[in-house]
Structure formats: C-alpha cells, structure tokens
Fold this sequence. Notes:
The structure holds 2 protein chains of 2 kinds.
Chain A: H1 2-16, H2 23-27, H3 39-44, H4 50-54, E1 71-74, E2 85-88, E3 106-109, H5 114-123, E4 130-133, H6 139-149, E5 153-157, H7 158-170, E6 179-183, H8 189-198, E7 203-208, E8 218-220, E9 229-231, E10 235-239, E11 244-249, E12 262-273, E13 276-284, E14 289-292, E15 295-298, H9 299-306, E16 313-322, E17 328-335, H10 343-356, E18 358-360, E19 363-364, H11 365-370, E20 378-382, E21 395-397
Parallel strand pairs in A: 3-4, 3-5, 5-6, 6-7, 16-21, 17-20
Antiparallel strand pairs in A: 1-2, 7-8, 8-9, 9-13, 10-11, 11-12, 12-13, 14-15, 16-17, 18-19
Chain B: H1 3-10, E1 20-24, E2 33-37, H2 43-51, E3 57-61, H3 69-78, E4 83-85, H4 94-100, E5 103-109, H5 113-119, E6 129-134, H6 137-142, E7 151-159, E8 162-167, E9 179-181, E10 186-189, E11 192-199, E12 202-209, E13 213-214, E14 220-222
Parallel strand pairs in B: 3-4, 3-5, 5-6, 6-7
Antiparallel strand pairs in B: 1-2, 7-8, 8-9, 9-14, 10-11, 11-12, 13-14
Amino acid sequence: MKDLLSSLNDSYEYVMHSTHSNFYRELYQDTPLPHITSLQDWRALPELTKEHIGSVPLTQRLFTPVSTVRHIRLTSGTSGGRPIAFPRNRISPIDAYISCTSAPQCSLWFFNPTYNFTLALQQAGFVNTRVIAGDVQNLAATARLSIAASVDHISCTVSQLQALLPYLQAVNYTANITHIDLSGERLSLAQKEYFYSSFPNARIGMLYGLTETQSMPGVCPDIRQDTRYRATNDFYLEINSTGELLVTHLHTAHNCFPLIRYNTRDTAEIVEKNGQQYFTIFGRSNLDMIKIPGGAIMTPQVEAALYRLHPHLTTEFELHYSATPKPTVEIKIQKKPTTSCDATTINTLRDTIAKKLKVSPSYTYDNGIVDTIYNPITLTLVDSLPQTTAKKVRLFVH
Amino acid sequence: MFPTLTTACAALSPTQLAEKYVVPADVHTQIALYPFAQEYQWQSLHTIYQTHHCQGAIALATPRYWQLDPIVHTITTSVSVPDMVIAPPNFDTLLPLSEAFVIDVVIVAASDVLELLGRYQKLTTPPKVTIVIHTELESLTIMRPTSTRTTLIHELHIVPGLPLLTSTYGTDTTPELHFELNNTIAAYNDGNVTMVLPLLDASLQITQPLPITPVANSSQFTI
C-alpha cells in the first residue's frame, strides 16, 4: 500500500508542480492537497473526463516542452462528440506485442504511427521484426503486402480483423498468421470461435489500449488461458461508483500528458490477486449499456443470449430500444446466406432470447414481460447489417 | 512504374528486409517491397520544410498502405515537430487536428489532392505547403490543380518516399511547372534518365526515357 500511495503521490505531484501546464491545478482548485497520504485523499480527487480534456487546448495541457511532442492523434469520435487530439512523446516498449512468445517476422499494424511499434519492438529486443501498416481503405492491398512482407503477427480491432479476413482467405494466407492481438472492442464468444477456426495456427491476445494514453493499461496474452486483462505497471486502475474504469498513469516523469483518475467510460470489474490487478471490460457505458426499468441491457448479455441460438443465424445483431409507451426491444439478427427460418421458429427464438437475456443478475427480459413491465421482443432476421471497420455500435435507443 | 525495380525487390528474402523500413515497390501491384535503411532521409521534404520557414506539424495523408509514416517521422524528428496521420479519404480529421496544433505541411497522393483542397476551405489557417505525390508520370502531366491558400509542390516518386522530380517552390500559379531532378540518385542525358537506386548494400541501375526537357541555363526541367 505504501508503494502504491508513493507512486500515486508521485503522479499527483508531477502534475500539480508542473511548470508547463495548469491543467490539473485548475481541475483540482476546489480540492487542493499538498500530498496524497491515503487512498481516501486520492478518491476525493475529481475524475478527469474526456469532455474536460476536450475543453482545454492541446498546447495548454502539455507537461513537457512542445518540442518533445512526436506525434498527435485523435480519438475516433465513435462515442459521440468531437474527436479530441492527444499528444505522444514516449514509446512503451513491450506491451504492444503481448501475444508474441517469440519475435514475429513481420507485424501488420492497423494503428498509427507504425514507427511507434517498430521502436517498441526494438526496445523489447525484437530488432529484426518489420512493421507494416494495415490500410482499412485498401484491404486487398494490405493482404498482398502481407504476403510480400511475410506477415505473421496482426494487431487490429475486432471489426478490422473481420473485414480483413476474407482478403487473407482469398490469397490463402490465414495459416501463416501465428499471433494476433485484438483491441478496441469486446470479443464475443462466437467471434472468438470464428477467429480460432479461421486462423488455425494463431495465438490470440487482447490489448486494452486507449488513444488517450501512451501505453497499454491492460493486456491479455492468450484468450484461451484467461480472458481477463492484466493491468500493466504503467497504470493504477479503479472502478467508480457507477462501475466505470478510471485509469491513472504511474511513472509519469517526462510524460507529456499524464492521466489522473481518467474516466474511460468503459464499465469494468477489477479483481486483485497477489497484488496484481486483473480486469474485465463489459462495454462502453454510453454505447454498450441501456438502462431500462428493472436493470440494464448490456452488449455482453445480448451476445450471451444469442450464442449458439440457431445454426442458420450469425451472432451479428442490432438491438433497438424504445422506452415509451412501454419498454420495447427489437432485435435484428443477421442470418447466414441462403438460409431462412419460418414464423414458428422465429417466435420460438424470440421467446428463447427473452428467457436468456438477463437485465440484472436475477431478472430476465422474459420476467419483465410476465410482470407486464416490458413489451415482447420483436425479432427480425436480416440478410446483412452495416459493415464497419470502426468500433461497432450494436445498441440503439429511439 | 519501373518493372525492373519490382522484379529486383521481389527477389529479396524476408531476412534481407529485416531492420528496414519497407514501402511497396509498385503501389499498383503491392507484390514486392522496396527497403529503406532506417536512417534514410526524404531530403526534399526536409528542404521544403526549411525553405518555407515551417514550424508546425507535418500531416501525412497518403494511403496507409504506402507505408510512409516512419520515413516522414525521420524528418519530423530532425526538425523537432510532431507528425500526424490522416487516413484518406477520411479528411474530416484534418479540421480537429489543425485546431489542436498548427499544421504547416500536408502530404497527399495526387488522386486525393482535389478532395483535400476542398477541405482547406474550412480551415482558418490552411497549411503553408501541400506536397502532392505522383506515382505515374501521366498524372503529373494532367493533374496540376492550383490553390491560392497553400503552396502546391508536386513530386514524382519512384517508390513512396523516394522522389525523382520535385516541382520548384512557389510555382503553383505559373502556367508551366519547373522541376528539379533528384540528382542524388538520377542523372539526365539526352532524353534518358539514369537512376542508381540503393538496394540494400548494392544498387540497381535503371536507364529509361523520360519526357522531360532541360530549361536553358538552368538545372531545372519541364515536362
């Protein structure tokens, strides 16, 4: 505890005594403390939000000289609101290659800039590995370059891998991939099975990274072993009163924009084992959860309800929710090509989903129908749902 | 553009490409990779940045599969400014990026330049310089947009990041563009250009007719 408090205090003092930026002094002006001496002190600090960061010009939230900034990148804007620019001046050496048990020959990265990852590799001792950029606008070119470069490691989001897969299959290259690191989105059970069958020789890991940070707060080296993320040494993680994950940079010296109690808007659960934090992400509080009377509809619960539901159905879905006049849910599920289900089957599936869909630990959507709180589910099977290489939104409120 | 180069690059083994920055040897086929040493400097980009008294960031807006970001980063590091990556055709990110930090140079493919110039209308301060990369000579002869809001500089690249021709500075409003030949790798002789391209520890010589005409009493050319 003493070590943790000491590290938290170091981060706090770094930002509060900065000669470059008033950012945190202004944020904490109502709760100034000379030092952090307890976790109670720490938890009294206001949370940092993306909206607040976006309200302060980038050059006024730099904690190192502007000449040290090497790269500027934007948040995706998928969570609503304007994209926000974040500066980078530091390379984190190892966590980016978490699934790799040995040096990959060539890494295909869909994140930018690729030189960051080349440097990370070099710092980790993987000096012979090349890094090439994946291009979501030119996936056929990306697949051809992957062959030319002998790519054996891919790092991308779940949606990007789904989009790239047909192009790699078309050039018969999937068996050459030995390591995959996924990030950006939750991976459903069905997607996990799909990727393992599509990439028979790949070990798959998950990274929990944020555009806002300069390194990865969480890593999961092999999702066959454990689907939880292990918190990395660069961060302290907390859950706030509404279940959202807060991240704090530790070892902040020379960090051009350290985050202190930053609210990620991801709902999560943290467990500690032997002094090590592990965490599970349930989804975005503003994208993957809809609060409804009696509980909430959450993306993982919908995925669980649809898992292995019917052989003619995929697990791609959209859920549309309307609160008035009475809570009503319509679920659109993408069916497999050239298949169909009759009306009786659809009604059976609808009832099965209602029974499996939990809105709280001990209450299902079907319970709500019986209690006349909710209208019955409307189930529609569709040939296709919008494809995207960005973060996918599955829950919609009308 | 140069089949001999593509063939030579296709013969390189993965081991030979270790510790190199690689770009497509031909942006149209993507079947082979041209290796750059990690120390390679895109010299004309550096010169353009200095000549135009730039101090802001360099934004890279070429297709991601061109693999240019490490090569641009070498230049931004040398002048101590940040770089940014904009993935075409999603130029929507240009506005928030330019609001966050002054952008002085944007690098774009010839096929995307008109779309990009249209976005400049929304910027309070458009970039001082826009470098337009052509990968085909034909595009250089046809595609010569003009702009009063930025200085357009055209470059013909042998592979992304390796210029053969660079239009001379500030000539975007003149009807006839003049070009400098990259004399570190190329020489002109009576209608032919001989290029000596570094290829790992060796070099590859290619001589090819090029329809450029020397400007009298000058080191420059017209097309």
